[in-house]
Amino acid sequence: MPSALRAWRAARVTPLGELHTPPRMTAALLRLTVQVVLVASLWRGLYAATGTTAGLDREQAVSYAVLAVLATRVRELDQYSGRDSVIQHMHFGTIVYWYLRPLPPQRYYALRALGEQIYGFAWAIVGYAVCVAAGVVQPPKSAAVAGVFMVSLLLGQWVLYYIMLAIDQLCFFTLRNGAAMLILIFAQNLLSGVYAPLWFFPDWFITLSGFLPFQATLSVPLSLYVGRIQLSDAGAQLAIQAAWVVALALLTRLVWRRAARRVISQGG
Fold first, then answer.
1. Distance set, CA 93 to CA 34, 108, 110 (Å)
2. If we measure between CA atoms, which residue out of 137, 124, 125 comes closest to residue 64?
3. Can you tell me the distance from the alpha carbon of 105 to that of 259, in angstroms, rounded to the nearest whole number?
4. How far is 80 from 48, CA to CA, in rounded Å?
5. Would you call 200 exposed, middle or buried from its count of C-beta atoms within 10 A (0-12, 13-18, 19+)?
6. Between these two residues, 76 and 23, which has the higher pLDDT value?
7. Which tens digit of pLDDT belongs to each residue from 37-91?
8. Contact 249, 162 (CB under 8 A)
9. CA 160 to CA 219: how far, in whole Å?
10. Where does residue 41 rank: exposed (0-12), middle (13-18), buried (19+ CB within 10 A)?
11. Residues 6 or more apart from 147 whose CB is under 8 A from it?
C-alpha cells in the first residue's frame, strides 16, 4: 500500500468516528454553543461595573475567553467512545498492534493527531466566523496581528501535541494512571489559560507558569490576538514557543524508544 494512502487512513481514524456518529456531532455543537454563550455572558457580567481590568477592556476579555473555548475544540475529539485512546489500548492489550502495522507507532500517533487537529480546526474556524459576525469576538486589529497570531497558534498547537503525547506516553510506565492523566490535563488547561487568562492570577503563579510549556499552547497566541502582548514582543514569544517544540520533540522521541521496551498485552 502506498505510504500516502496509509498516512491518509491513519489521519482520518478519529474524525471518521465523529462523522459516522451524528448524535455525537450534534452534542458537540450544542455543547460548544452553550459554552460560548455562557463564557461571553460571564465575562460581560464581570466587566459590567468596570471599564478596564488587568490591562484589558471588556471586549478584549470576552474575545480571549470565547477564543479559548473555540481553541479547545481543536483537540477535543472523543477518542474514548471509539476505544481509540492510548490508555484503553494499554488496558485491553491492543497497543501491541501499533507495533505490528507498517507504520511505526510514533508516526501513526502523529498522523492521527494531525487528522484530529485539522478536523478540530474546521470546527473552530466556523465557530470563529460566526462569533465575529455576531460581534462576540473582535477581529484582529491589523493584518500583522492576524499573521503573527496564526504563526503563534500553529506553534502553540505543535507544543500542545507534544504535551498530550507526553501525557499519553505516561500510560506505558504506569498500570493505573486514569487519575494522573486527569490531573495532568487539568493542569495543562489551567496553566495554559483555558479557564481564565493568566494575568488574573497572582504574580508567583505567572512566574511559575513561565518556566513551563503550557502557556505557549494557548495563552501566548490569544494574548497576541487581543493585544495583551504587543507586536514588538512577538518575536521573543515565538522563539520561546519554537524552543519548547524542539525540547519536547527530543524528550518524547526518547520516551518512544523506552516505551517500546515495555509493551506487553494486558487485559483483553
1. 38, 17, 20
2. 137
3. 11
4. 40
5. middle
6. 23
7. 999 998 888 887 777 776 678 888 889 999 999 988 776 665 665 566 777 777 7
8. yes
9. 12
10. exposed
11. none
